[in-house]
Design brief:
736 residues; mainly alpha; cell membrane
């Protein structure tokens, strides 16, 4: 059960966010109730507690404390402005728009600027919601101060969260998700014709979830690890385990009889399993393989702090023995390749346990296990972190924060005008929606999709609010209890579904209106109208004010992915050709992050309701093909880092010549993405292996590039060439 929870919520980040926010509200309401606060100011305190909790995103506790301390005067100043301008509609609207601009512009100053801007805007909104006036300011100040104090108590004492603790939980989540992926791979091996496609889809989902957790760990390493060398070691071992698990899944596909299965099958959603109609093979070798997959899962789930013990050590030794050719069982080459992949995965698990500080009992080591330990120790000894190269930032209106601030200010102005035409008292709902659809979005398409999801969640929330308001009536504490439940659900579901967030927010607001004695069916219907208006104003502003079209945004991100892919490939090939060692996994993670950004930006193109079906399929295919290329590039980087220590890998200068075509094709595709009139063409030709030229007689095997490296390069070459057709890049006619 612990592993299931860890896997479903990596780092318990969603659970912590929900508990902390709901706990802050509950504590603030309890304290204010003991002080004899009326219901209106109880609601103000509850909302202020929620704002003071979710606005702060910094990872270090000291930085969080400073931001929280600065947030209180910002909140009080914002509430004072709202109360002072309560009766002056025009001035209040102008100040609100200016505050919105400053809040969005403040994102350029990092997490603290974002938090303070969010606090200022949201507290102004809270003041409008409770109808704050100058005469009520002392009572409101007390409610806000209590809310911030309760938020601090919950954050730092009752539900503490440290970077080290989060990183530790993320590591556990990685192990749990790795075990789940191994279970899915076991099911894939056993799946019959009817279950094959579903089993492959589960492997795809497990692979994506494992990759997601690896990226989360990457983002927390700097703050959660005091020693940079330890952070680099954990990063490497996590990457090794991820690559080994994906390689194992690909080998299992081949073992099902798909001799030329492409890695694309692991990354393209909905693609059928190659040779999926075949019955699973049942012989002695595959029966052994089934047991070994389960044994590998046992090794993964073994708590890091526990020593292996004789039985587990025996499992580990047997699996690591598959890395030696002589230990492979008699089977087809495809099945033998799965056993090799199991051995490499066991080695990755061993390295991960060592990097996480696992108990180190070497008394039962076999020669194969001892050799793997020596290799891991040798790799750890050559860790060398590179300095990051600063990137040039955009200025003026080209800076994303400035552009977004102008857009949201224009959209909010439209929302204020239209909202006041709908209602003189509830117009701020349109402004809030306009503000929210701009959060964490960067293109018109993303804003359109987010606005649609918010409207859908609001409609469903209104229906729920009607039912709940009738059931609760004016029972204050029952209503507050349900509000707490909805707030927890809102933050727990936030990373999963924005529609669910909007639903829980609207349902909670229906209860708050009941507490404020302002509930009516017309109020909830008005909320739908204001939400639709705000979403429309946001889309209009995004489309006509300094617009960033979805195509332009995706092209920019696609160019970045291609550039990062070229960097990783070039660095790996250089090192495999004899250049000095580099920290290649940092470059690989930059590629992963760029690909994650592209995947998020293409969501409007791949959304189920999009009318452009052909365009949707093209976007899905291109992203899947890039994920395939990224897998092979990561694998090349991981192999290149083994070069100084692995006895079967040695530098081969011929490799640089063989990989030149891949680099040229990446540059040609990048040129076409940047300029559709580009005349650059990609090149095709013989296989990568043939480009190496004849080998020297008498050269031992360790002096050649391994078959694995050639296979990754060949697949990378095929993947890059495959991008030409959907992106419309011309292919150079073969010479002669």
């Amino acid at each position: 059960m612990r592993d299931r929870v860890a896997a479903s919520d990596p780092g318990l980040l969603r659970l912590t966010a929900g508990l902390r926010t709901a706990g802050s509200i509950a504590l603030a309401v309890a304290v204010l109730a003991l002080l004899g606060t009326d219901v209106t100011h109880l609601v103000a305190g509850a909302l202020a507690a929620m704002v003071s909790t979710f606005a702060i995103r910094e990872k270090q506790r000291g930085q969080q404390a400073i931001t929280l301390a600065l947030g209180l005067p910002v909140a009080l100043a914002s509430m004072t402005l709202a109360a002072a301008l309560h009766s002056n509609v025009l001035a209040g609207d102008l100040v609100f728009v200016a505050l919105i601009f400053c809040a969005v512009y403040g994102r350029r100053f990092g997490d603290r600027g974002t938090a303070l801007g969010l606090i200022g805007f949201q507290i102004y909104f809270v003041s409008l919601f409770v109808g704050a006036s100058v005469g009520e300011l002392p009572e409101l100040f007390r409610a806000v101060a209590v809310a911030f104090g309760c938020g601090a108590l919950v954050r730092f004492v009752l539900v503490p969260e440290t970077p080290t603790g989060v990183l530790e939980r993320l590591r556990e989540a990685f192990r749990a998700r790795l075990a789940q992926l191994l279970s899915a791979q076991h099911d894939l091996l056993d799946a019959g014709p009817e279950e094959a496609d579903r089993a492959l889809e589960q492997v795809r989902e497990g692979t994506a979830r494992l990759h997601e957790t690896a990226l989360l760990i990457q983002g927390r390493l700097e703050g959660g690890t005091a020693d940079e060398r330890v952070a680099a070691l954990v990063q490497r071992r996590v990457a090794d385990a991820e690559i080994a698990a994906e390689r194992l899944g690909l080998s299992l596909l081949r073992a099902r009889g798909a001799e030329r299965v492409d890695t694309l099958a692991m990354h393209l959603p909905g693609a059928p399993i190659p040779s999926g109609g075949r019955q699973p093979v049942k012989d002695e070798a595959t029966e052994t393989l089934r047991r070994d997959l389960e044994a590998l899962r046992v090794l993964v789930l073994r708590p890091v702090e526990q020593a292996a013990g004789p039985a587990v050590a025996q499992l580990r030794n047997r699996l690591l023995g598959y890395r030696d050719e002589e230990n492979l069982p008699v089977a087809s080459p495809a099945v033998q390749d799965v056993f090799r992949a199991v051995g490499e995965a066991a080695r990755a698990v061993l390295g991960l346990r060592i990097a996480l500080g696992g108990a180190r009992d070497e008394s039962d080591d076999s020669p194969a296990t001892a050799r793997s330990r020596e290799e891991l120790d040798a790799e750890d000894a050559v860790l060398d972190a590179d300095e990051e190269t600063p990137t040039e930032e955009a200025t003026g209106l080209r800076r994303p924060t400035t552009r977004a601030a102008v857009q949201v200010a224009v959209g909010s102005t439209l929302a204020i005008v239209g909202g006041e035409l709908l209602s003189r008292d509830r117009w701020y709902w349109a402004v809030l929606t306009c503000w929210i659809v701009f959060l964490n979005t960067a293109s018109t398409g993303e804003i359109l999709v987010k606005g649609y999801r918010r409207l859908l969640g609001t409609v469903l929330g209104v229906l729920a609010g009607i039912v709940l308001a009738g059931a609760v009536g004016h029972n204050t504490w029952t209503a507050f209890a349900l509000v707490l439940l909805f707030v927890f659900a809102m933050f727990y579901s936030a990373p999963l579904s924005y529609t669910a967030v909007s639903f829980f927010v609207t349902a909670a607001l229906g209860l708050l209106y009941t507490l404020l004695h302002t509930y009516s069916l017309s109020v909830l219907v008005l909320r739908i109208e204001e939400t639709a208006l705000g979403a429309a104003c946001g889309v209009i502003a995004a489309a006509f004010v300094l617009p960033v079209q979805t195509d332009r945004r995706t092209n920019e991100l696609l160019a970045t992915v291609l550039e990062r892919l070229g960097d990783v490939t070039r660095s790996a090939v250089d090192q495999l050709s004899g250049e000095p060692p580099k920290e290649l996994l940092d470059e690989a993670r930059e590629l992963d992050q760029a690909l994650a950004d592209l995947r998020a930006a293409t969501k409007p193109l791949t959304h189920p309701v999009t009318p452009l079906r052909a365009r949707r399929e093209t976007a899905r295919y291109v992203v899947a093909l890039l994920e395939t290329c990224a897998f092979h590039a990561r694998s090349l980087a991981a192999t290149a880092e083994l070069l100084p220590t692995h006895p079967s890998i040695a530098a081969d200068p011929r490799l640089r010549r063989a990989a030149g075509r891949i680099e040229h094709n990446l540059e040609a595709i990048s040129a076409h993405v940047g300029d559709e009139h580009s005349t650059a063409e990609i090149e095709t030709g013989p296989s990568i292996a043939s480009l190496l030229g004849p080998s020297t007689p008498g050269v031992p095997r360790y002096g050649r590039i391994t078959d694995r490296v050639l296979r990754h390069l060949q697949r990378l070459d095929e993947g890059v060439t495959g991008l030409a057709r959907p992106l419309g890049v011309p292919v150079k006619a073969p010479e002669g």
